[in-house]
Every structure is written in C-alpha cells, then in structure tokens.
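Worked example 2:
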Amino acid sequence: MATPDYQKTAEQIVEVVGRDNIMSAAHCATRLRLIVRDKDAIDTERIEKIDLVKGTFFNAGQYQIILGTGIVNKVRGD
C-alpha cells in the first residue's frame, strides 16, 4: 500500500473550500475544523471524494472535515 500524500490532500481541501473562504483552521483528534466565510460556496460532494476524507458536516459555525485519528495532524501539517 502506498504512503498517503497528506500534502496533496491538504491542497485539495483548500482548493475546494477556497483559500479566501477559510477564515481560520483548527483540529481535534479526528477532524479538521474550518471557520468559513460562506459554507454554501463549498462543494461538499467534491470534498468527500478526496482521498482520506471520511465525511463532512457543519456544526456550531464550523465546517468539519472528518479525516481520522492521526491523519488530521499530518494533513494540517503538525
């Protein structure tokens, strides 16, 4: 099995969400949590087709992208 390309995954997420749409980014153990200017501008179907993305949802003002334990740290660049 090939090593996942975490940088590519991060770049794809930023491309779909929109660099100018992201106001801030944080993460927890399994999710990338984005505060965005316009959640309706995000193509959720495209996000969910990105390798390593397990799902998405919007909650408490955050667009949350589920990546999984350990993976989120690598995609975010920690």
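The helical segments are 6-17, 44-48, 71-76. The mean pLDDT is 92.
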